[in-house]
């Protein structure tokens, strides 16, 4: 059985469960969703199988669900070849069509097997295989070609496993002659293919819709005409796309909901995909069923938008021509020529022509052309007419003479054409008096602009839209050495060659052509409102020195807003750039000094602080080497006592011996380091400009320039910081040197700080040694935290308490040990001393650790910080001997 046959049978039988007892073929086709031809074929088999009953009602056939029918009634009723087989594939029954086919009777073949009848030779092995393999309750179809009586017939066999009386199983085989049907189907397919080719080829749109207006088919021309592809319209209603003003012509009377799709007007407006309304002219035909019902509508739509517009334009053309002719802002003259094109006659003029010339409309027709041309320009006019006869058109300027004798300049655009077979000249004439004044003003303004450009301090040049030089001011000549006379009118990048000595596009070319590759030649170009600016480092075209330029290119606009040229300005900003560079270098040194100052405070030794400082300065200045040179004693032969060095190549800093260590004081020639120590100010020089002695010790190390900055301590020269450059003849700016002098001061301060620390440590050590030999308690009290520090070990011998007991918090100071009657007096004396800053001396009693009363003498003085604030009290406490 072919795929879907069982489902088709089931679909047909299910339609009888929807309420109606009797159904026509059309009803079953509509309810089951299958084509009526398919339904008809399967209905026959269902009737033969006894599942349905067919009754004739006039011209219509109606089908009913029936009980199991006798085999004979089924067989006799069928118009097709019909065979009933038992389950063992023997003949149970056959109708006359089959019997005639094999030329026998039912009695002769009854209960014979299909093999005995040799049906495979007649029907073919495929049909016999299908019969043998059909399953109970299954239905299969198989086509077979049968040759009989010298005739080939195509049959469609349906093999069904069914049950008859008392549920006797059997195989019912029906054979339908489909030779004619196949031919008809092939003809239909050919017709449909041809129709599809036609519908897809025509430029008109073919559309089909259901009676409710739902579109079911649209030809491919739809996309060309409306912008919609066919699938976008299918499933939608036509009314969604019809202009609201045209919809009433679809409707029945005033009922807006009652749309009569058979009343599609002959022309209407349709909304395209882009929202534009176009006009369609239509021819619509309803397609009817056998019963006369409307199945759908087929319509051919033709776009008549252009035709309607042309028709409208044609209707208005004469009126428009007259209005344009009379309302034109130019004088229009229509002249008729003789056959030889030499003689003319005025045929028509508009009102503006009369106003321009002062002649009336009637007077014009009595004039000749030479009545309106001044004699001084007759030769010019003759030359123009000769060219006109050659080219059949002319565009020229000339003066014409008014009726009152005044001359006015005009611009004439003349064309030859043929009207009703006669040569006619249409001359559009424009009064250019104001334009001549404007042109004169523009020339004057242009001259003023050239004068302004000429005396601008910045180099400026101007290009036209063809990249030809139209202006080249004096500053540009001074910059490039190329004169205005040499370059005005030149193109082919002559302006670039004058500056860069090569033909290449510049910023002005970018404004004209907007070629992005031009901007790639510059670093960080800035664009705003079609104006481009850049900063460029390049070489002076004449001196070849390195210079910085600020370049700006901007368009020049005409009166109508179009670009008519471009102006490029160059400004030498070398001084500003050098100053910015110096400031950046100075700031880098300041930042390095800031880091160095922080490192000095965190360093434990002077050498560590000094090495960090020269490393920071060396990295900031990008110099090859930095040396910290300590001056030798005056009794020493050598100039340098010790050296610290930072090397950029290795990135290391430490103690070393520099070339300066090779110089001594005994040489007759004064060394550059001696000069620094003597003059006490920075010294800069290229090595090649130094004396022989300095060159001999510096050049082997590859040093090309040096800078020495003195380091002072208490206004005395301690040494110097040396900056040695090996990569170039470096020139140090004044700002860099000033910053490095601050760096040398920082090093001097670090030296003093560490020396002061060393002295303080030495003094502290001496003081503690002395305090140990003084009888009594030597102490310091901090006023910030009331902490008490003892400088010797006599506390325990006097009070009985050890320093550890005092530190552990058992007693916070000596105040708790003072005899109660004396305590307030002691406190007041100390307060007064702190207030006045004067020393004090007082006697009082204490109670020692063992409860003994002792008389003590205390002398002390307040200690202040740099701001004068008392921060501590230093003093000594001694026991007073009692009698």
UniProtKB/TrEMBL annotation:
Q: What is catalysed by this protein? A: ATP + protein L-histidine = ADP + protein N-phospho-L-histidine
Residue ranges annotated for the PAS domain, each copy included: 191-262, 317-392, 445-503, 763-837
Q: Which organism is it from?
A: Methanospirillum stamsii
Look up keyword Disulfide bond and say if it applies.
no
Q: Which Gene3D superfamilies match?
A: 3.30.450.40, PAS domain, Winged helix-like DNA-binding domain superfamily/Winged helix DNA-binding domain
Q: Which UniProt keywords apply?
A: Kinase, Phosphoprotein, Transcription, Transcription regulation, Transferase
Where does the PAC domain start and stop, copy by copy? 264-316, 394-444, 532-585
Q: Name one GO molecular function term.
A: protein histidine kinase activity
- Its EC number(s): 2.7.13.3
A GO BP term, please?
Answer: regulation of DNA-templated transcription
Q: Which InterPro entries match?
A: GAF, GAF-like_dom_sf, PAC, PAS, PAS-assoc_C, PAS-like_dom_sf, PAS_4, PAS_fold
The protein's name: histidine kinase
Alphabetical list of CDD domains matching this protein: PAS (cd00130)
